Amino acid sequence: MTYTFDFSALLPYWPDFLWGAVLTLQLSAVATVAGFIVGTLCAIGRADGSPVVKAIVAAYVEVIRNTPLLVQVFIIYFGIATLGIRVSANLAAMIALTVNVGAYTCEIVRAGLQSIHRSQVEAAECLGLSKPQIYWHVIVRPAIERVYPSLTSQYVLLMLASSITSQISAEELTAVANRIQSGTFRAFETYIVVGLIYLVLSFVMRGAFTAFAQAAFTRRRKLGTTL
Amino acid sequence: MSPVVKLSNVHKYFGALKVLEGVSFEVERGGVAAVIGQSGSGKSTALRCINALETIQDGTIEVCGHAVGDPKLDRRALRQDVGIVFQSYNLFPHLTVEQNIMLAPTCVKSIGKSEARDLARDVLAQVGLSEKAQQYPEQLSGGQQQRVAIARSLAMQPKLMLFDEVTSALDPQLTGEVLKVMEDLARGGMTMILVTHEMAFARKVASQVIYMHKGQVWETGPGSMLDAPKTPELANFVGSGL
Ligand SMILES: Nc1ncnc2c1ncn2[C@@H]1O[C@H](COP(=O)(O)OP(=O)(O)OP(=O)(O)O)[C@@H](O)[C@H]1O
Ligand SMILES: [Mg+2]
Fold it and tell me: Could B92 and A137 be called an inter-chain contact, meaning their C-beta atoms sit closer than 8 Å?
């Protein structure tokens, strides 16, 4: 069996590939930021909330971590429609990815919060800082710094997993690829190209995360400790 | 003039464990009280109660006009009047020395960045560490970290300073530099309560020594009481300690 590669058939589609990559990055960026906020708030709720809040967060995290992403995407997409609210597939995808990555973020950040010693909080209390101030300056910021590598991996995974939202025809790289391959009948070549684009996107994301760390974590930069 | 700190018949339990059993003492403005006693006698607990880090089960504590035992106590207001320094420094590792010091003044008193920086410069000069403003805690020796912790408390301009065995983790030379800072503070009129194992320092600087034993104030008096203990327990403690 011999297969003759023909990438030239894909050449006219380069703007579509590019557009798909941009859409995937957009989707991932929104879900990353929103998921980070959701996850961090959940982690604080789980560490310091009322028993009801703790139970709700625990249930959320367990449900999300023990069901397939694809099923979550479908449930959220069709669930929202059932409520009579019209949302685009793209918005539904963003919500589903946020809900998903929020749960994983919660677990990662929670580990970070637990690594901050009680005496740090006590010292801040004794200086008269309010609870929100203590959380922001003394707990969350150093905690995030400590778990930053895990968060980076999680958000790169999220970007790769976002390809699943092509199943509800959200516009992103894999959906674009599906369309191109059915137009060109060059499925193998299309997915090789798409795979390479995902690879590049992963590197771009890791680069962005490293750059952010350089800017945000001044101590690491000054003392030359790597993350 | 009413005392800065007044404990009356304070009782404190941890579950079934009685840690403070009717502790009473007071410290006047500008007074320096040295609290001494065996390990487990309740010295740290007494200090933590004064700062509302622990709740008490009976008795009253009054600190700078705040009724500490009162359930309606405004803890943040109390803590603006009271500074505390711990044995383990507890500096914020991700912040520079200067940022450590500026944090509370900017957050709690809402003073501007540049004013807070001036304040940081002043208190760092006071503890002899002006050149360390931009360093991170991990770049400093233990004694330097402890002096930064003192400076951080001083930046809030407290009316009372509490010190809990602040030199216990330091070697003799570093201990000396921290004690020097505390001595300067006492000379400057700061009201202080310090838990310490440094008997020579207590004798020299304290206006009042409080010997705690089994959760009670066993013996109290001027520094000279260490030379002529009235109770066998204190005699034993002074004799064995040095
Ligand atoms: N959070 C706590 N929970 C339960 N027991 C405690 C707690 N803190 C202190 N204790 C107990 O209270 C007693 C007094 O402790 P405290 O720390 O006040 O002693 P101390 O005089 O400061 O001793 P040291 O010189 O060793 O620091 C000890 O028996 C200790 O085990
Ligand atoms: Mg102690």
Answer: yes
Distance linking the first and last C-alpha atoms of chain A: 48
Tokens of A55: 């139970």
Q: How far is A121 from chain B (nearest CA, A)?
A: 9
Could you give all domains of chain A from N- to C-terminal order, each with its CATH number? 9-223 (1.10.3720.10)
Verify whether ligand 1 is closer than 6 Å to residue B94 (CB atom): no
Please work out whether the CB of residue B196 comes within 6 Å of at least one atom of ligand 1: no
Instruction: Point out which residues pair with B162 in neighbouring strands.
Output: B84, B193
Confidence check: pLDDT of A227 > 70: no
Outline where B128-171 has alpha helix (H).
Answer: 142-154
Number of the ligand closest to the Cα of B41:
1
Query: Contact B86/A128, CB-based, under 8 Å?
Result: no
Q: What is the mean pLDDT of residues A13-36?
A: 96
Alpha helices for A115-186 (secondary structure H): 118-126, 131-134, 141-161, 173-184
ipTM: 0.91
pTM for the structure as a whole: 0.89
Residues 6+ positions from A49 with CB-CB distance below 8 Å: A57
CB distance B113 to B101 below 8 Å: no
Q: Is the pLDDT of residue B192 over 80?
A: yes
Q: Does the Cβ of B19 fall within 6 Å of ligand 1?
A: yes
Classify strands B58-63 and B5-14 as parallel, antiparallel or unpaired: antiparallel
Q: Which of residues 51-90 of B touch A (CB under 8 A)?
A: 51, 53, 75-76, 79-80, 82-84, 86, 88, 90
Q: How many Å apart are CA B125 and CA B117, to the nearest integer?
A: 12
